[in-house]
Amino acid sequence: MAEKKKGSTTEIVRALAEPLAKELGLIIWDVTFTKEGADWYLRIFIDKEGGVGIDDCVDLTHAINPVLDSEDPIPQEYTLEVSSPGINRKLTRPEHFEAFLEAPVRVKLIRPLENGVRELEGILIDVAENGDFEVITEEDTTVTFTRKECASVNLIEDYD
């Protein structure tokens, strides 16, 4: 029987994928492992300077498949998807927030603010070491968030 791997599924897959991505001139943006209906999906989001093309996705898929087969970090059946994080990409890691300071973002909260607002848009203006971040809204209001209170934080292309 194989020894149980240490760490979450996404951490294990990230650790396996990062050296392969680097060889291909890519970075791992994010790794998710989610159940949708009866099916599980392992999604590896990749990026690179100048953007990702379909060939980049195919190349990493071909590189990671044999590694996932031999290491077998996931006991159940799943579908592997390798793709770009897209224009409206989710910011999930500290380096994402650092890389997109001064960028427009949409923040969706788990619980509404005191004024009932559950979603707001603004410019990401600061990020602290502990992961808290600040957004300045269209009304020139600065709002500070903790990552724990956010359902999601996404870049937005169409911010005015």
TrEMBL record:
GO biological process, one term: translation
GO CC annotations, alphabetized: cytosol
Keywords, ordered alphabetically: Cytoplasm, Ribosome biogenesis
Membrane is among the record's keywords: no
Keyword Transcription regulation: no
Pfam families: RimP_N
Ribosome maturation factor RimP N-terminal domain segment(s): 17-87
Subcellular localization: Cytoplasm
Family, as annotated: Belongs to the RimP family.
Protein's job: Required for maturation of 30S ribosomal subunits.
Protein name according to UniProt: Ribosome maturation factor RimP
